[in-house]
Amino acid sequence: MSSIFEKKLTPRERPRRRWPIVLGIIVVLLLLLALFTDIGKDAAFIAHFVTPPNHFTYKGHSDYISSVAWSPDGKRIASASGDHTVQVWNPADGGNVLTYRGHTSDVLTVAWSPDGKQIASGSLDNTVQIWNASNGSLIYTYRGHSDAIFDVAWSPDGTRIASASNDGTVQVWKATNGQRLLSIQGETNARGAPSPWNAVAWSPDGTRIVAGGNGNAEVFDIATHKMIASYGFNSAIVHALAWSHNGRYIAVGSSANRVEIWDTTNGKNVYNYLGHNADVLSVAWSPDDKRIVSGSSDGTAQIWDALTGASAYTYRGHLDYYWGHFISGATVNTVAWSPDGKQIASGSTDDTVQVWAAK
Prior knowledge:
Methylamine Dehydrogenase, Chain H; 2 domains; 8% helix
C-alpha cells in the first residue's frame, strides 16, 4: 500500500496576473469618455465631487425634511420630518439639543414662538402640539382639525396661532388654551369636499392673516372675520406664503412654477419670479425685505431681488452629488432665512437640512 506521501504533487498553478486586464479596461473606459463626453465637464464633476462643500449638513433625521425654522435669536434650528420627530439643534455644528417625539405620524410644519420659548408643530396625526423649546415638555395639544396640519404660524404678539389643514379650514386659536377665535372654510371641490388650505401667514401688525390653497391667496381681517383681499391669477395651487417684514408685500409660491409678489397697499402684482422649472414649495423674505429665497420641486433653492428678480443665485447642495452626499434631493421642501440675514437653512427629500451662506 502506497503512502500519500509517495504520490507526486501536482505543481501549483501560478496565479495569472490580472492587472494588465484591469488596466486595459480602465484605459478603454477613459478613451470612451474622452471620445464621447466633455473632458472639461468630467474633470469639473470629479473636482466638485471631492471638494468639501462650503455648507453645513445636518443628518439627524431618517426621513424627508418638511419644515425648518430658526429660533428668534438665531442660535437654534428646529426641523420637522417624516420620521415623526422635530429636532432642535445648533446650526454651527449640528449639536442636537433635543428631539421631540410627541407626534404619532409625519410632522409637516414647525414654528417658534416670538419669544423663542415655545415651539408649535403640526402633523399628519391631525394635531398641533405646543411644547417647551428647551426641554421638549408638552404644553398643549390642539385637536380642532379633523385632518393633516399643513402649516402653523404664531401671531406677532405670541398669543394666537393660525393653522392650515387638509380638512379645508384655517383656524385661529389662543396659544394657551386652544380657544378658537376664527375658522375659515375653503371652497368645495368637484366632489363636494372642502379644498385644503396649504399655507398661512400673519401680517406683521397681527390684524390679518393670508391663507392659500387651490386658487388665490386670500387675506382675512381677524376682527371682522371677513375676506378683505385676494391675490393671484386663480390658476394654480398655493404652496407657500410669506408676508414682508414691513407689511407691504406678500410673496406667493405656487404650482405655476413661480413666486408672485403682491402689493397689499394697492392690490397690484409687482413682480413674478420665473427662475424655477417646477412647483415652488417654500418662500422666505430676507430680514431687510430686499431679497427672497425660494425652494422648489426642481431640487434648487434660489435667492433673488424681491422686486426685480435680479442678482439671482441658485443653490444646488441638495441636488448635486458630492463626497458625503450620495442621495440627490428631488425637492427642496422648506427654506428659512437666519435672523441676521447671513445664512439660509433648507430642507429636502434627501433627509438633510443644509445651512449655507446667503449670497
